[in-house]
Amino acid sequence: MADAWQTHSFEFKGGLITNLSPYQQGFQAPGSARILRNFEPSIFGGYTRIEGFEKFDTNALSNTGVVRGIHRYDGQVYAVRGDDLFRSSGTGWTQISDNATYGSAGVTIGGTAKVRFLKYDFDGTEKLMLVDGTGKPYRFDGTTFEQLTSLSADTSGSSFIVNFKNHIVLGNGKKIIFFCSIRR
């Protein structure tokens, strides 16, 4: 019969490891986890528990099909569902694409692939740029949504977009396209 407690300290590290048996994991990676439910990556490294969530907008997103992309920009949420771009401030969704109010009559987002977003500011006005993996990139400046048809043919079909040192970089298959700014 044990009559004394012993304390052993170990560092919590290793994160999520799923390729070891529980026995191996206990010896080789103490402090790691096999299952992480309701956890997310922490900004401080490792994982942190999700303490709950709240819907940004209780209204359902319009249109049909899968949500192809979502992005938070300027205190609002932008989402692409089907071939349309929508915006919400938390009290309902407004269609941005194919809407005369935003100068986008007849402009829809092509393809069925994931849509990726980029927020950038080269001239004092924040803008949002989108790529859909099919056509040329799109730009939204808060009042006008347009497809950038004046860009070179190499930009058509770009699937990735990033701002790197005040250059917009597009990934299109095996091509990397970059430019300094996009002005009206």
Summarize the structure.
The protein has one helix at residues 22-28, and strands spanning 39-41, 47-49, 67-73, 76-81, 84-88, 93-95, 116-120, 127-131, 138-140, 145-147, 160-164, 167-172, 175-179. With 184 residues, it is mainly β.
Key traits:
single chain, 184 residues, mainly beta, four-stranded antiparallel β-sheet, 13 strands, 4% helix, 32% strand, elongated
The main sheet comes to: 4 strands, antiparallel
Assembly annotation: single chain
Percent of residues in helices comes to under 10%
Number of domains: 2
Shape: elongated
Order of helices and strands: HEEEEEEEEEEEEE
SS field, number of helical segments: 1
Alpha-beta content class? mainly beta
Tally of strands: 13
Strand order of the largest sheet: 3-4-5-6
Instruction: Provide the β-strand percentage band.
Output: 25-35%
Amino- and carboxy-terminal Cα gap: 81 Å
Poorly predicted parts: none
CA-atom Rg in angstroms: 23 Å
Average pLDDT, rounded to a whole number, is 82
Task: Present the secondary structure layout.
Elements: H1 22-28, E1 39-41, E2 47-49, E3 67-73, E4 76-81, E5 84-88, E6 93-95, E7 116-120, E8 127-131, E9 138-140, E10 145-147, E11 160-164, E12 167-172, E13 175-179
Antiparallel strand pairs: 1-2, 3-4, 4-5, 5-6, 7-8, 8-9, 9-10, 11-12, 12-13
